[in-house]
Amino acid sequence: MNPSTNKPNLLGFSGSLRSGSLSTRVLHTLPSVSADKADITIFNIAGIPLYNQDTEDAGLPDSVQKFKDAISASDGLVIVTPEYNYGISGVLKNALDWASRPGYDSPLKDKPVLMIATSPAITGGVRAIQQLRQTLSATLSKVVAVPEIVIGQVDKKIENGALTDETSLKYIKSGIDALVAEIRLKKIMK
Length: 190
Ligand code: FNR
What we know:
Layout: E1 9-14, H1 22-33, E2 39-43, H2 53-58, H3 62-73, E3 76-82, H4 90-99, E4 112-118, H5 126-137, E5 142-143, E6 149-151, E7 158-159, E8 162-163, H6 166-189
Parallel strand pairs: 1-2, 1-3, 3-4, 4-5, 4-6
Antiparallel strand pairs: 7-8
This protein binds ligand FNR.
């Protein structure tokens, strides 16, 4: 929580590595959309290697340590994912696998999370959201129950690199409100 503004510090990351990613464009729209509610830092998971327990046992790669530290330092997460073969991308699952260690006692434990899925298809990544929820349930993070944000036909809702569709923006704002409420509840219950 930023003591001067009383706004939570959120960490956002995208499950797509490609430069033209629609998910990443949605992610980069979040800081301005949420500016009055939260401060959002964006983390790029591109440098995270494939999970290998031998590597973990030998000492965390720098990129993984930075990722875990950034999660620990945040009050909550916003994950924007594309849908690959009815699930989340491999790179996102891999990053979450690294972050999930040690099991049931990782930086993801008790962390409030807002999930957003995007797709050029009308289904908007709804199956990816389901898989993401299942994966996060194993980490004991606190996933915002409602709304589950899916943005279908996302390619038609982005102009000049930013999400401009009013309905999607409203949807995201309600998601940020729910995430901030979860964070504030967590602080009260502590
Ligand atoms: C896809 N795409 C896709 N879309 C979808 O709605 N459901 C799916 O199951 C899949 N499966 C899938 C698998 C693979 C390997 C690729 C590369 C793509 C299409 C996908 O939504 C589209 O390429 C998005 O633009 C990818 O997200 P980013 O990179 O734009 O964020």
